Amino acid sequence: MIKLVRTGFLAAVIAMGAPLATTAPAQATSLYDNPKYAAIMINPETHEVLYSRRADVPRYPASITKVMTLYLAFEALEADKLELTDRVVISRHAASQPPSRLGLGVGSSLTVEQAIRVIAVKSANDIAAALAEKIAGSETAFAAQMTGKARSLGMMNTYFANASGLPNARHLTTARDIAVLSMAMLRDYPQYYRYFGQQQYVYGKQVLKNHNKLLGKMPGVDGIKTGYTNAAGFTLAASAMRDGKRLIAVVLGGPSTMARDQNVAALLDAGFDVLNRRTQGVRTTVAANLNEPADFRVPGTATVTEQGSGDDSVTNGTRSPRR
């Protein structure tokens, strides 16, 4: 039997704060009973859905949005409409974006490659907006391109209102659509996928740490993107490769970083276990190998942020103020 809480590394998730914090009453419900929760796991080679829970119910994606932002950036690079050495200038609109952000001043600039790395690692909303403006002229126009690309990829239940995933009532997707996007990224731009696997990136004097704590800790995990807003909860699209087999797991609406990461880790472990056992002639399912609800009770008082950093971490359900 696969246990949901398998490893101790998740206990070391770093607590990072965010502004505009408000306190929500604690609720001792399981992760799976959380109305925000949705999940899916897919084998991208066969497109087999190995696990699904509320996978087609609309949800807020938070910073997983930036996977599409970078997808369009990679598309522009391959079409020679953009170069990695081009400069991305920070507009007043970009500089005004709430955290998480790099914090460059109006009129300053960085290269396209630096912007890609900062978005992939830091999940910087200001840089996502600036890159959107570089590609499409405005973030609004870029968001329309994002939605159009979603349709062409088969993401029929997704609408993007911005390049970052910051709160917007119209900015919606589903766990299944995010899995489709993750598969498209791996399929269409494998040469750029490495950006999602960086555990840190040094920009100037800043050492930026990837919010995806499964990188370097969970066997085989090599991407792709985390997210958080109060409305979305804690989100993660993760991909892992083991023994030549790849799986993609998406969790939306987690109550904390730790619960989300533990759930994704459990899904991936169970998924690879099922694939391996199938080669031995054993018929089983991921759902049959998950201990579902009791391991994910959220203790204490959960402090959340309305704007969110896109990825700020929570330990034991409690948020500490951002420095």
UniProtKB/TrEMBL annotation:
Acetylation listed as a keyword: no
Annotated binding of substrate, by residue: 225
Pfam families, sorted: Peptidase_S11 (PF00768)
Alphabetized UniProt keyword annotations: Cell shape, Cell wall biogenesis/degradation, Hydrolase, Peptidoglycan synthesis, Signal
Renumbered residue ranges of the record's region Disordered: 300-323
Signal sequence, start to end: 1-28
Location of the active site: 63 (acyl-ester intermediate), 66 (proton acceptor), 123
Protein name: Peptidase S11 D-alanyl-D-alanine carboxypeptidase A N-terminal domain-containing protein
Species assigned in the record: Tardibacter chloracetimidivorans
Taxonomic lineage from the root: Bacteria, Pseudomonadati, Pseudomonadota, Alphaproteobacteria, Sphingomonadales
